[in-house]
Automatic annotation (TrEMBL):
Residues 18-87 form the HTH gntR-type domain. SUPFAM superfamilies: Chorismate lyase-like (SSF64288), Winged helix' DNA-binding domain (SSF46785). It comes from Gulosibacter macacae. SMART domains: HTH_GNTR, UTRA. This is GntR family transcriptional regulator. Keywords: DNA-binding, Transcription, Transcription regulation. One of its GO terms (biological process) is negative regulation of DNA-templated transcription. Pfam families: GntR, UTRA. GO terms for molecular function: DNA binding; DNA-binding transcription factor activity.
Length: 261
């Protein structure tokens, strides 16, 4: 957090410290990734690292803390740090939020076809996640999504009334609604995700050409803008064998939690 001060000098010092400790952490990641520091090796002391990187011990401590939190290093406060794994580069936020952006990042060609677009009455999930009233309407858009021309997923996106009226006017062949909305000033900046194994419904079976009851990977996503305004309440259902999710956790940082369906 930035310091609560009106002093520009103090703020500049804080910015320099943040940038420097992130730079040191990235240099250490690069060293581990290039195997110049091996898995299982002990890191130099904070004072030694401060001399190597030309920084204060406090700045180095912040860098090491970040590496411990992400699971690359292990070791308690003040204790020697050990390299426990190679650093994992996280996917960009846009790739996790947008199927099209993820596909482009993999060098694949995304596509899709709208099979249904209809105004429906908000259900309990919409009331909770879109913060709308029980009798409000939401726009439901159902699309099959493809990778390099092959169907891989069924997307059901639900938009609040004000945003649904914008989406309703868009070209149904757009590869990314999220990108198109960004061009109109609607920016998706945060999202909550949950994943589950679900059985294919009758509609899933028909649109994905799989037997009813076949296991699918469900990705439920609730997206919002930077002010916390809900934008989308969606569920994507992937065919088995098409996608896997990787998450790293440690005693210091665990982004996973179990939830009820």
């Amino acid at each position: 957090m930035p310091p609560l001060t009106d002093n520009p000098s103090a703020f500049r010092v804080w910015i320099r410290t943040v940038l420097l400790h992130e730079s040191i952490a990235e240099r250490i990641r690069d060293e581990i990734d290039a195997e110049r520091i091996e898995i299982g090796a002990s890191m130099p002391t904070e004072r030694e690292l401060a001399e190597i990187h030309g920084a204060s011990v406090g700045t180095v401590r912040l860098a090491l803390r970040n590496l411990v939190l992400e699971g690359t290093l292990a070791g308690g406060r003040g204790a020697p740090k050990t390299v426990v794994r190679r650093p994992n580069a996280p996917s960009a936020f846009s790739e996790v939020l947008s199927f099209a952006q993820w596909a482009y990042a993999q060098g694949r060609e995304p596509g899709g076809s709208v099979v249904d677009q209809v105004w429906v009455t908000a259900n309990s999930s919409d009331v909770r996640n879109l913060r709308c009233a029980t009798r409000d309407r939401v726009l439901l858009v159902v699309r099959t999504r493809t990778l390099d021309g092959e169907i891989v997923m069924l997307e059901r996106a639900r938009y609040p009334d004000w945003l649904g009226r914008i989406v309703e006017q868009m070209d149904p062949s757009l590869p990314s609604v999220t990108n198109a909305l960004g061009e109109q000033g609607v920016h998706f900046t945060r999202a909550d995700h949950s994943f589950a194994a679900v059985a294919a419904s009758s509609e899933d079976s028909r649109l994905l050409c799989v037997p009813r009851g076949k296991p699918l990977l469900s990705h439920h996503r609730v997206s919002a803008d930077r002010h916390g305004l809900p934008l989308e309440n969606s569920e994507d259902r992937y065919l088995s064998g098409m996608l896997a999710i990787a998450v790293s956790s440690s005693e210091q940082s665990n982004p996973l939690r179990w939830v009820d369906l």
